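We close this part of the discussion by returning to an individual protein. Part of our work consisted of pairing the sequence of a single chain with a tokenised description of its backbone. No coordinates are needed to read the tokens, only the vocabulary itself. The amino acid sequence and the backbone structure tokens for this protein are reproduced below:
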Amino acid sequence: MNCCDGRMICLLGLSALQYRKAMNVATPHLGKPRIGHSACPHDCPSTCALDIEIGADGRMGRVKGSADNSYTAGVICAKVARYAERLYHPDRLMKPMVRKGAKGSGEWADISWDAALDAIAENFVKAEQAHGVEAVWPYYYAGTMGLVQRDSIERLRHAKRYSGFFDSICTNPAWTGFTMGAGTLRGPDPREMAKSDCVVIWGTNAVSTQVNVMTHAIKARKERGAKIVVIDIYDNPTMKQADIALKLRPGTDAALACAVMHVAFRDGHADRAYMEKFADDPVGLEAHLATRTPEWAAAITGLTVDEIEAFAALVGRTKKSYLRLGYGFTRSRNGAVSMHAALCIATVLGSWQHEGGGAFHSNSAIFHLRKAELMGMKFVDPDIRTLDQSQIGRILTGDAVALRDRGPVTAMLIQNTNPVNVAPEQRLVKQGFLRDDLFVAVHEQFMTDTAKLADIVLPATMFVEHDDIYRGGGHQHIILGPKLVEPPATVRTNLFVIEELAKRLGVSDMPGFGLSEQEHITKMLPYYDMDFDGLKEEKWIDCQPDFEAAHFGKGFGFPDGKFRFRPDWTNTPAPNKPPKVLGAFGPHEDLPVFPDYVTVIEEADEVHPFRLGTSPARTFLNSSFTETKGSREREGRPEVMIHPEDAAAQGIADGDVVQLGNVRGDIRLHAKVTDGVKPGVLIAEGIWPNSAHLDGEGINVLTGADPVAPYGGAAFHDNRVWLRKTA
């Protein structure tokens, strides 16, 4: 942890310009140039292993992917390669500040660290005295994937019995759908893509968001002549790399999967012997799929029958077919069903039996890290309510259902996330944050949309300025991220803030508090018989199970070892299942017995004839990197992709200002007319800051917070909207 010292006291008296200058020259740390080893801290399955140049002046230089790491393989995305641009950005937050004027007015006064932490603790105590402990809601997410800095907030939550946090916004539909079939969240070694004869990249724009997937897929193409199939809802950079590109309507992935399995049974590609041994009801599945023909799927997906037949034939005759299943296609109200249906293809074909074959989404279940003390799990009280992260707008505006029919939230600490920008139902979120009776402290690196509406803003360290540990769901490594450069004297780690609040709130003597980052890391590693120093020497741990375990050679993750074609949608354990008291979410009673296309999505109608997807931008990562000049220049401005037929019908030309709207609100942005989208489909890339839009409101004005069945999640790519030309 960083400690208050004379340098901080001196710098607190400097002007904003002086802060920036102090930060940009870095804290002196003279020595020889060297290469430091770390991990990318951002919310990406690749969690790349990094080699970072550190100059003799102690400043961060160029960032490269580690060539020694077998998954990263020397390749990283351009935005992380330019990380020094972010670390030494002139607009980085450099001092604690307290709001002076009205919320959102932009009027701030300097405050010392001690005074700021005292004020946060005092407001938490006031909230507790007025409405009970559940009035305080610590809120966080994946702005850093470092386990110590990210998850320590949970220890404070549980120790104080503050409202619980159901982290639904990103992974739940995908994780749930996968475990409904496989019974666990792991799969074939992702490096096996390089040994495949057919790599299917389904629902993830890997060129933009998981560059290492492309590293191994392209290697298979070059060395083995492998075919690359890309399935998505628009012509993104990954689709441009495909041998077969399947552009389907949003939310219709399960229909395609069912048709592929229909063809496998029809044409003799289904591995009946494998299913007899390893699946629950192949006979019932075959009967169910008898009517799920390519013609049936073509009418739903917008693909041609020939496209579906060609894809089905390719994977059917290619034993080493590797299905790399992403998050994107699951962010619909039928997303868990779509993931399960796509996963079933590998079992029908028996692809799991072959190196370079099977299906993979995440390896999250393979890491044996002990986090219970870090997160304060011993203190968990099941009677404390749990609030859904994705429904923050409803919670802060007093929705009784979202609040679990209990009292209001009147105090928050926010770390590692930017809900005023990234959460669904943005107008409700902003309305809630503007409440006069809501106290909000935000610990951040930049003045985000959320920080702008806070009462107190605290400056946070970046990943090279503190110790932490990372694990990569998209691969198999635990990676150490040690402190490599000295932080500015006036910024603090997440752990520091949690520890200092624990002291002020009377829980610092409880187990798990009072430990350094290095001590927490060592406590997580007993399975590997290693400590912080040992991991620093090794750089990472390869946790990949052997072939038989990774390919489910002794059975899948259920007690009977059988893959589930017939999932138990409301009783199956899952990596992030809601607490039992909350029950199943969404229209779970409408979920199918077998893999199928279900119309629980937000379908277009006469008033809202378009379907909107809010896909990631190449040089942003959620709301990170939106502050850097390089990323903003490459992205240009907020735009919506419109098919030429739809544009012509409304007299819209490329570059025109258009308005999109639905029952949640409306926004204006510029049109990008392109045949890269299907008629009736609109795509808006990137989570731009709200202020980058013409009216100061972002794309999440249009997205909904209805939970995805059965275990929750946010359906960011499942929105019906109207569109018109405007001024």
User: Anything to note?
Assistant: Residues 1-28 have pLDDT under 50 and may be disordered. The first strand starts at residue 34 and ends at 39. The two ends are 52 Å apart (CA to CA). Residues 134 and 163 are 4 Å apart (CA to CA).
